[in-house]
Amino acid sequence: MTKNPPAIFRPRGRVSVVALACLAALATHAQADEGMWMPSQLPQIAAQLREAGYAGDPAALADLTSAPLNAVVRAGGGTGAFVSADGLVLTNHHVAFGVIQYNSTPGRNLIDNGFIAGDRAGELPANPDFRVLVTVGFDRVTDQVLGAARGKSGRAYYDAVDVASKRIVSECEREAGVRCSVANMYYGTDFYRVRQLELRDLRLVYAPPRSIGNFGDETDNFMWPRHTGDFTLLRAYVGADGKPAAFSPDNVPYQPPSHLQVASDGPQEGSFAMLAGYPGITYRHRTAAEFAEQVEWTLPTRVEVFDSLIGVIEQAGRENAQARTLYASQLQSLKNNRKRAAGELEGLRRSDAVQLRGADERDMLQHNARGDRRELDALAGVLAQASAVRERDLLLGLMMSQSQLLRSALTLERLRIEAAKPDETREAGYQARDLALIEGTLKQVQRRYDRAVEKAVLTALLGRYQRLPDAQRLPEFDAAFGRTPATLAAALDTLYAGTTLGDEAVRLAALATAREGRALPVDPLLALAAKLVPAQVRLEDERKAREGELLRQRPLYMDVLAAWRAHQGRPLYPDANGTLRVSYGRLESLQPRDAVTYAPVTTVQGITQKNTGQVPFDAPRPLLDAIARGDFGATADAALGTQTVNFLTNLDTTGGNSGSPVLNARGELIGLNFDSNWEAVSASWWFDPRYKRAVHVDMRYMRWLMEKVYPAPHVLREMGL
Amino acid sequence: MTKNPPAIFRPRGRVSVVALACLAALATHAQADEGMWMPSQLPQIAAQLREAGYAGDPAALADLTSAPLNAVVRAGGGTGAFVSADGLVLTNHHVAFGVIQYNSTPGRNLIDNGFIAGDRAGELPANPDFRVLVTVGFDRVTDQVLGAARGKSGRAYYDAVDVASKRIVSECEREAGVRCSVANMYYGTDFYRVRQLELRDLRLVYAPPRSIGNFGDETDNFMWPRHTGDFTLLRAYVGADGKPAAFSPDNVPYQPPSHLQVASDGPQEGSFAMLAGYPGITYRHRTAAEFAEQVEWTLPTRVEVFDSLIGVIEQAGRENAQARTLYASQLQSLKNNRKRAAGELEGLRRSDAVQLRGADERDMLQHNARGDRRELDALAGVLAQASAVRERDLLLGLMMSQSQLLRSALTLERLRIEAAKPDETREAGYQARDLALIEGTLKQVQRRYDRAVEKAVLTALLGRYQRLPDAQRLPEFDAAFGRTPATLAAALDTLYAGTTLGDEAVRLAALATAREGRALPVDPLLALAAKLVPAQVRLEDERKAREGELLRQRPLYMDVLAAWRAHQGRPLYPDANGTLRVSYGRLESLQPRDAVTYAPVTTVQGITQKNTGQVPFDAPRPLLDAIARGDFGATADAALGTQTVNFLTNLDTTGGNSGSPVLNARGELIGLNFDSNWEAVSASWWFDPRYKRAVHVDMRYMRWLMEKVYPAPHVLREMGL
Predict the structure, then answer these.
(1) What's the confidence (pLDDT) of residue B32?
(2) Which residues form the signal peptide (chains A, B) (predicted)?
(3) Mean of the per-residue pLDDT values for chain B?
């Protein structure tokens, strides 16, 4: 099997002229907008890029450590971009929200009032854990990662990859101020070492009020048309030596290797647009069987189980006002997850994704002349192993995430076991650096636990577990909870009547002994955990063995898929994995359903229309007044005759792309990505060009706000405006 | 003051050529779509009608007792139209819903399954109170109505109009099978005697299942895009002598004087459309002061008071599951009323109606050369009298409509008083023909009353009443409830602890004595009613005196307004009053808000998109299968390449227009009106061409359903299809 990455893009086999013409059409039209490209791929799709309207040299985009892409950074949990020579970073209000919150006090409410630093001395230090990461190295390390793994299988393959990756990271991080990681491309086909400068001193420069930066909040989340000024400006500082440093008044502004220039004009429907950022995870190149499982089992089951937990918690809340308060946040989170799962299911069904991916894979296998069908069948076999225990794994996962005391007990017992090992060999999540997080979780139990609700939640989950076929059940769990609703109820009654883990002091005392690997106090839930954790560890071992096999076998599938895509004239991008990607497309309207059309640009008139004076549609008076005055000047859209706010593109994005800069054909900054539309929730699996859109702040709106509404002329000047 | 109706349309005064050109433009563009025209007005707007695209002779539309308008009938609470020579009546599913329900049994659920009569013998008799009214006479009787009133004022004017109207009706109804009424045009300017044939034997011929006829139900009510097959076919029968008769198996199909022909093709965006029907009530020609009061006081106050009652009832429901059930319907109704009021307020504000009507009236008064400003001021004075007691009247009205026992007591006491008079002189609502309704209301108290909730509702309403200024309060109410929350609470405690009206037998026994004018049983609530009813009667007398003055004075305002409109080149239609009207316009898209456009035609693809399998989006399997087959044939829209469902026009409609036929330029039937859009809720006061739309069933959808989904070829044949 070829491990040479260009094979992914090189057409193979003989193709007729007609087919080639047809495939070129496919490539430039039907599929032109799908793709989260690695910068190194862009020269290979230069023709498409130019045809789509890009005026620059695609070759200049190939190196993500050179301009302009080295102006694009990871910021907090999203993306950001340098927009001045003195280290101004533009990102979303919601990405920088922690920074704003950290600097807010009852007497100086920056969330509600926004913030403008009058000068550099007035810039406010971010929370110390906020980071901006500048990618300074991106090197293929496939041979180092896979060297020891080759010839192995299962758990051994997994461990070899894991050990090699950890070694690469640890060697790389010997350099001060640098954070490293190993990125897995094409599901184990290729590995890259990512070196990133870790900027630790960020300061708040400009934030609009929440009623602009988060106008519409949850109500408008995932919605289009949108009217949100979701942007904030930070500035990165480094030590006097130019190296990353923690906050110090002596630090100096970071001089980035390059920065983006805000465009002096704006886009309109059909305009070329391009976006760079750090998308988190997609599943586009999973097998047809995985698509079918997602639609036919995973998502419907998640909806069903979430519904049952929502019902249990709501019922408890009706009977008990205190429980209602304690579980408000967990309930909200379950409802969000339920909504996401239902939306993804709806989208995948609307796009007929299972059918289309199935047909695509059948065609791919028919086209595959390599005769290695047996190896592909082996991949299917490993996936089937995971499917065989999927319901159990879902239920036991929820047992951990949806309980408070039981999770505390299981965490403490696992920590006790892991603490006996050297720190670097402990399971992730139980290392020294994780202790603060564990302590925080144990402390917040107090604000989230009600005995009756936890028992009801566990009754729902474990009751369902009890009804699983024998092959999915575990002797440890059957021993603990029996096989009938009556035994389960009796077990939970006994456990929760006897446990003292509801007492914070008891939990923290247990943490003190667990972290030293010493025996835990006597408690029924801790005694239960001592019986269940070995089963959890066994399942984890089985999972890692399966993951090792998948790491070993998926590259073949990817290779066959790449050959098929090459035959179609469609280069293959790797699924998103948190590394820097580029997508290109255009401003495009959306027909979300019969007889409804959404224009791709919104205007300030929509703010006035949505404004109710009540959160989340409480546009601030200065904004409403400025809209009423109509004093838009150079930032107004000539064709619309008014000020634009947000725009919509068909760019390929997913979570992690928040704050991604959107560029025009000349590479100038025209927008800031901040959301996608509800119809695109399913795009992490399937890109449907009819429905996939991304939502951006129009930079003309940002400029207008900074010019006329909450003026910051010195910041605009610094950005060359 | 001129009473000659043509004055309403005749331009007066000298107008510059420029102004005339400008006004002509106004008339054909900005205002072309507003107007619920009396058929007699259509020849006067013939030029506009032709310019809009009407291909027929406007003069042929002038007489509502001739073809084609005599094919348009009142049906139940809405409108219908004859569509065959043998008396087939097409109306909405929701207008004929009572007929369908009346014929449904658990074993034969016509609501869920729909109904197709295999032949005439299979047609099912409607509920005996369902009526179809065919207008056979429409004659001006202004002189007869106003003859005795002239020279009088106030209550005497009111009584003179009332007596004359009742005499006209009673003389007219001497003819068997005819129902008569007197219609008041232009607010007392003109009166018409309406003679209508009262068809009493209606039979169900064709109804789609509820999941087509009411697809979307409350969720889609007032919404566009829409996908509802809201139509039903009935047949009118008469006695063998051709005269209206109650149901009899010997009756024969009614032969209408004319019927409409369904078009063989369908409309598209921009197509001319025209609609005839019986709109109920509009307020377009009210004074600027009345507009201001509606927006600044009436609607906000209604929202506020409804909110407070909703809060009271919901709070009670949280504490008491039985109360929640008993008040579910009242709560739903309050919420609907609240939503309507808030929607109307939002719409009037969005349209800036107060400002625009105010400016219009100022211009009108400036243009008015008649020097009768003092008389117009007198009208304003009468309106101000009503405004001075508006909050009291709102609260006392709600005290009646939102209570159960107190309303029962007040009704019984009033009936006792009225029953002592000869039947024809009793107050409307307390005559012999009203007794069944009163008895029904007294009976249903059992299913709608909870003591604690009624007391809480009255505490909210009367507590607010207690805070009114002295001038609005009534000595009888102050004596009964005191002036403080404490006295009110004590009074309600005593009244509801002591009353036995919660017992149905007691209420019905009281009805038996009240209907004979005899003394009522001893009961604290009845004793209270004996004190309060005289105050209610006094307020009613004051209201009638004011209404008499309004009847006397509004015609002057209307005359000045008509002169102003004539000067503008805009004929004036009378506000809707339940008489036959015609409006014309075209299929038009809607931009309800920033960046959103709704196309004016929906397709069956929208049904598939909306379908969830759950009520109200549970499209029936035969429909979904037929859509999936795509077998649309001649009923498909050529341009869209699929089957249309509903369409949207800018026609001027209001409640009562349900079931109105929509005609094309050739006068053929292309649609059936059934709803309007949410943005148009405020159109009863102000027609805003940006937002006012009407929603229709596309006759191609009806034909397709009857051809291919639930076939009824014999009915289609009868309709000439």
Answers:
(1) 53
(2) 1-32
(3) 93
Q: What are phi and psi of B520, to 5 degrees?
A: -85, 160
Which of B299, B513, B532 is CA-nearest to residue B399?
A: B532
Give the confidence band of A587 by pLDDT, cuts at 50, 70, 90: very high
Kindly give the residue spans of alpha helices, DSSP state H, lying in A499-653. Answer: 504-514, 524-567, 604-610, 621-629
| Catalytic hit among B230, B575, B637, B688 | B230
Q: Which is higher by pLDDT, A18 or A207?
A: A207
Distance from CA of B355 to the nearest CA of A (A): 17
Which among A280, A287, A319, A633 is positioned nearest to A450, based on CA atoms?
A: A319
Distance CA B156, CA A511 (A): 91
- Contact between residue A80 and residue A91 where contact means Cβ atoms under 8 Å apart: yes
Decide: B197 and B136 in contact? Cβ < 8 Å: yes
Using alpha carbons, select from A89, A269, A93 the residue that is nearest to residue A644.
A269
Comparing CA positions, the residue from A317, A279, A276, A219 lying closest to residue A72 is A276
User: A499, A524 in Cβ contact below 8 A?
Assistant: yes
Q: Which of A95, A173, A98, A180 is nearest to A137 (CA)?
A: A180
Interface test with B, best of A224, A349, A594, A642 (most B CBs within 10 A): A594
Whether the per-residue pLDDT at B715 is higher than 50: the answer is: yes
For residue B508, give both structure tokens. 């019905």
End-to-end CA distance of chain A, in Å? 53
ipTM of the complex: 0.85
Whether residue A596 and residue B601 make contact (CB cut-off 8 A), yes or no, is no
Distance of alpha carbon B560 from alpha carbon B368, whole angstroms: 6
Measured CA to CA, the distance from residue B76 to residue B94 in angstroms comes to: 10
CA atoms within 13 Å, Cβ hemisphere of A334:
23
Q: What one-character-per-residue DSSP string does B88-149 give?
A: EEEE-TTTSHHHHHHT-BTTB-HHHH-EE-SSGGGPEEPPTT--EEEEEEEEE-HHHHHTTT
Question: Can A170 be counted among the known catalytic residues?
Answer: no
The whole-angstrom separation of Cα A603 and Cα B92 is 40
Structural domains of chain A, ranges and CATH numbers in brackets: 5-65 (no CATH), 69-266 (no CATH), 272-276+576-718 (2.40.10.10), 288-551 (no CATH)
Residue A372 clears pLDDT 70, i.e. is over it: no
Residue B47 confidence (pLDDT) above 90: yes
Give CA–CA dist A115/A118, Å, rounded.
9
For residue range A423-457, what is the model confidence (pLDDT) as tens digits? Answer: 888 998 999 888 999 999 999 898 899 999 999 99
Contact A343, A681 (CB under 8 A): yes
Stretch B219-243: mean pLDDT: 96
Q: Which structure tokens are listed for B218?
A: 């409350």
Mutate to test the interface with A, among B318, B588, B590, B594 (most CBs of A within 10 A): B594
pLDDT reported for residue B20 = 36
Two structure tokens written together for A142? 């496939």
Residue A136's closest CA among A24, A284, A243? A243
User: Using 50, 70 and 90 to split pLDDT, how confident is the model at B374?
Assistant: confident
Interchain contact, B597 vs A602, CB within 8 Å: no
Of A623, A703, A713, give the one whose Cα is nearest residue A118.
A713
The vertex-B584 CA angle with B579 and B585, nearest 5°, equals 145
B486-529 pLDDT tens trace: 999 999 999 999 999 999 999 999 999 999 999 999 999 999 99
Q: Is A684 a catalytic residue?
A: no
Tokens 């609502």 belong to B429
Q: What pLDDT does residue B372 have?
A: 66
Q: State whether residue A701 sits within 8 Å of chain B by CB.
A: no
Question: CA B467, CA B304: separation in Å to the nearest integer?
Answer: 15
Q: CB–CB of B72/B79 below 8 Å?
A: yes
